[in-house]
Structure formats: C-alpha cells, structure tokens
Amino acid sequence: MLIRMTESSVKKLSNGDRCYRASNGVKPGKNGCVKNHYLYQKQHCYPEEKIYHVAHNGGLYKRPFNEVFEETPMLVAVLTYMGYGILTLFGYLRDFLRDWKIEKCQNATEREEQKDFVPLYQDFENFYTRNLYMRIRDSWNRPICSVPGAKFDVMDRVSYDYNWTFKYTGKVVKDVINMGSYNYLGFAENHGLCADAAADVTMKYGVGVSSTRREMGNLAKHEELEKLVARFLGVEAAMAFGMGFATNSMNIPALVGKGCLILSDELNHASLVLGARLSGATIRVFKHNNMQSLEKLLRDAIVHGQPRTHRPWKKILILVEGIYSMEGSIIRLPEVIALKKKYKAFLYLDEAHSIGALGPSGKGVVEYFGLDPKDVDIMMGTFTKSFGAAGGYIGGKKELIDYLFTHSHSAVYATSMSPPVVEQIITSMKCIMGEDGTSFGRDRIQQLAENTRYFRRKLQEMGFIIYGNNDSPVVPLMLYMPAKIGAFGREMLKRNIGVVVVGFPATPIIESRARFCLSAAHTKEMLDTALRMISEVGDLLQLKYSRHLLVPLLDRPFETTYEENEE
C-alpha cells in the first residue's frame, strides 16, 4: 500500500521520533497513527516540508517501495483519441480507393479464383496493419550489424513505397548509443571472459547438439548449468530450456490443467498468456499489481469453487512477473506471497527482466525484497537479458523439476541448448556470483543501479512523464499521440541514439511510449549524451507533459499505484 504522508499528518512520539498518519483513507489506530501501516522516521532524516512516499503494508516491506504513474493530461488524451480517429477515417477512405483500384493494394489478399473459399486473411483484422502500422513501420525491425552492446552499428535503409518494402543503401550508421536492448549487465559482448570461454567450448563441443535432453542431447555442460542456476537462486533444483518464450508457454500446461484455476496479472507477457490458454485451466485476470483485486479473486475461488459443480479447485496458480517490461513496474511480491500463503495457492514468478538486474547480488526480485526463495513455488527466468545469452530456466523443489523433466513438452521434444550458449551463461553467472575471483560482476550490478536512478531522475527533472519503479532499469517515456511514435524514433536515430517505441495494441490506445533499457555498460558520458538528445527531441515534439499531478490507484484503466507529488 502506498501512503501519502505530509507534515500535517505527523505525530511526535515520546522518544522524539515521528509517526506518520496516512491520508489515503486508511483508518488510524488507537494512538492516532495508522495501525499496521506505519513508519517511524528520526527527526533529522528529512526536512519537515517534504512529501514522503513510502510503501509499508503490515510490516511486509523492508524497504521503501516507490512507483510513479502520472495522470495523462486531459488535452493530450483528447488529441490522441482525435489522432487515432482521423487515421481510422483516412484508413477507410484508402480501403475504398483500393477496392476501386484507384490506389494500389500492397497487402496480402486472395486471388480472384479463391474468393469462394474460406478466407485466409481477415480483411478487418489487417486494417490496423495496413493503415496505421505501415505509416511508421520504419521505426521497427532495423537491422544491426555489430554486437548489441552499449553502442552498435545500424544498416541504413530507405523505402520508396511508404514502408511496404525497404532497400538497403549500403551505408552503415556507426556508433549508435543502444538504449533499447535488454543488455542489463553488459554481457552481450564479443570480447572478454565470456566470449573467450564460449569460443573454447565451441571448438570442443561444436555449435549444435542435434538431439533432445531425453535422447542423445544431455551434455555434462547442461547439468553443470542447472546445478549452478539452482545454487544461484537458492533452490533445490533447476532445469534449463533453449527458449525463454517456450519456458513459459510449454511448462505451464504441464503444471495445471482442467479443474485448475489460473489467476493472471492483466499485464503479463504473451508467453504466460499463451501457456495459460494452452493448459485448459480456467483463467481469471486481476488488475495490474492490485492486491485487492487478487485477494477478491482468491476469496471467490475458495468460497464458490468451480462453476456449476462448486467443487474445490484442484490447484490455484498465481502468475506474475518480477519486472513488467512495458510499465517498468515491480511486482508487490511480499503482498503476493502473503496472499498465496493465506489462501493456500501456488505462485509462478517470471523473473525474465528482474534476474540479474535487481537485488544486491543480482538474484532478482526475491532478493530485492529480502524474501525466502522457498516461498515461491515456481521460479522462472530467462538467460536472454542479464546474461547475454538465450534460453530460460525453472527452479524450485526437486520433485517439481523431476516432474517437468518427464512431462514438459519443452524438455521432451525441444532440441538441447547450444554448448557455447550454455558456457556464456555459466561464465556470466559465475562472474555475477563472484566465483571468478573478482568483483567484476558485483560492480556491474551496482553500476546498473546507479545508471537507473540517474537516468530516471534526469528525465523527471526535464519534465517528461515516465512510468514505473525507481529501481527498474526499464524506463517508459510517454509519447501518447500516434504521430509522435514514428517521429521520436526517427529523430533519435538521426542523433545516433537507438530507441524502442511502442504503441497500440501493445499498450493502451492513449499510452504510446518510448521504452529505454539501461545497461551497466552505459557510461555517464553516454547517458548524458542520450539525455541531451532526448531533451532536444522532447522540445521539438513537445513531449514534456509532466505536471507532477498523480492520480489515485483506482482512477486508471491499468491499475498500479499512483501518488501525488508536490515536491
């Protein structure tokens, strides 16, 4: 629970400390302060005129939990809806011209002799792609021709038919600052300890395995990796998979099925959504990071049971992520675990973006909150972000891993992980754990945390609206209007800054954004250059919308946490 605290809600205690009263509707206790929702601060800690943003819920949190989601300005929201409305009208006009052969139709369609068959392409489903996405298609799928480190090289391309096709000019844009890759700890590199170790393993084992783990593809390196992952996570056992997406989509159906209930966060990744749908279990969605919504679903599930028969659910599985890659928010894991224990449910935690990027030792959101890994039933993560490799893992009790080894489609049918990829993970993980004999890994974790706080603070000072947790290396900067999605990406590339822009339907229709991903490989000079260019483009496109007016939790379609900021 986020509590807004001001000096008007301060009560001095006999020992000279201060107890802060909540002003968000929580009833005070007998001492005039908030019962089970309080924080004591020494008199010398902060100036008295400050506004304090603290998240404490019944003592569950051992550290402040700060997340900010500023309200969309009304004028911006109206203009954004108008922009999409105008694009839609012109889209229908262009479709009319295409039907009458006045405008050339570039999209895939059936031939005339196939018109009586069941259509392969749903015309209306492709409306957005034809008339909106194609206008800004050049902002995506840009080919790079170097290592995706702190800087990379981008191949130049042009389009002569309004982004339906592209032609390469033969030119290369050199030294573009990479603000889009998930290279959180900077291990995506072609030199150094990891690259050398992967090269040696390639010479010994080759690149491919050409078999599954159950047949001839179980190498000693795979078992070494799994033992290392289990030790890193602090769990009994772990299992590695060759693809991060398939780790979710192929293993969730092995864990739950008909007669089971899945409670899924509304902003969960597509791999979690697909896995839940393939399982055949009943799916109910709770509002993003909203513990009241989750508890209501849990309570209803226990009280009412399955539909029609009212039999108890065989299993109740809660699906959440550590860091949400579009919002930059961090799961309220202490509260989720408390609810899971209260209602005897199971917890599936996807740490794709948080493993390596959060916690003093890089062990993810569990370590970030100081929790026990045993309280999470299924710990999932990927090697594609912080470790600079590919694949995913699942960690937990030995019984769980033994079961998945024989029942998971991804384990039984998928080809084993490539040996050099396995070695990249092993070497980078040992570096993070300090088992390479240096503090190099720990220094990278600290550098990422410093870069994250610095970059977020500077963007807020410039007047941009950014979303997410202060400690999240995923930083969404709000663009809102559809025309500014492509414009921002193009203008930043002109200034040698590579960014990722995102719009509807990947985000709510009025919440288009640019998403920055910080890396330990970024130097302060790189970040300052990027910030200077972002500010320049922000002035050009008039993107500095922030008024520091944040709205209550229940006033936003995608529920997270909102806080007024009067500092």
Automatic annotation (TrEMBL):
Keywords: Acyltransferase, Pyridoxal phosphate, Transferase. InterPro entries: Aminotrans_II_pyridoxalP_BS, Aminotransferase_I/II_large, AON_synthase_class-II, PyrdxlP-dep_Trfase, PyrdxlP-dep_Trfase_major, PyrdxlP-dep_Trfase_small. Residues 174-534 form the Aminotransferase class I/classII large domain. It holds the Pfam family Aminotran_1_2. Its cofactor is pyridoxal 5'-phosphate. Belongs to the class-II pyridoxal-phosphate-dependent aminotransferase family. This is Serine palmitoyltransferase 2-like. It comes from Huso huso.
